[in-house]
Amino acid sequence: MLGKKLKGSFVLVRTRDRQWLLIKHRDEYAIEGEDITETQPYSVLTKRTLAEIAEDEGGNVKKAATGDPKKLPPRRGIKRRKKTAKKKVWHSKKGAG
């Protein structure tokens, strides 16, 4: 994988209770002790946190906020999009065919 936030080798494992777990291999991109959800919590596509995405899309904000860090790093001059703005969500089933 060679994305903006995640790089290197990963394995996707399905657990007994039918959940998916993405595990990072130890490779040249692995940084010991780094938690990507703490250091880069904002979406690459929408520049929002999980709680903001849930709020904007009608999801469970309280549950989504558990995936966000308690203290958010600065946004680096990027403004949160307005609720009336067109949503930047890619759906895999729409483009297929």
The helix content, as a percent range, equals 10-25%
Q: In DSSP terms, counting alpha (H) and pi (I) runs of 4 or more, how many helices?
A: 4
Number of DSSP-assigned strands? 2
Low-confidence stretches: none
- Regarding quaternary structure, what we see is single chain
Structural class: alpha+beta
Report the biggest beta sheet as strand number plus sense, adding barrel if it closes.
2 strands, antiparallel
Share of β-strand residues: 5-15%
Terminal residue distance: 25 Å
Q: Tell me the strand order in the biggest sheet.
A: 1-2
Order of helices and strands: EEHHHH
What's the overall average pLDDT, rounded? 81
General shape: globular
Radius of gyration: 16 Å
What can you tell me about this protein's structure?
With 97 residues, this protein is an alpha+beta fold. The chain has 4 helices and 2 strands, in the order ββαααα. The protein has helices at residues 36-39, 50-57, 61-65, 92-95; strands at residues 10-14, 20-24. β1 and β2 form a beta hairpin. The longest helix is centred in the middle third of the chain and has 8 residues, at 50-57. It starts with 9 loop residues before the first strand and ends with a helix.
List the helices and strands and how they pair.
Layout: E1 10-14, E2 20-24, H1 36-39, H2 50-57, H3 61-65, H4 92-95
Antiparallel strand pairs: 1-2
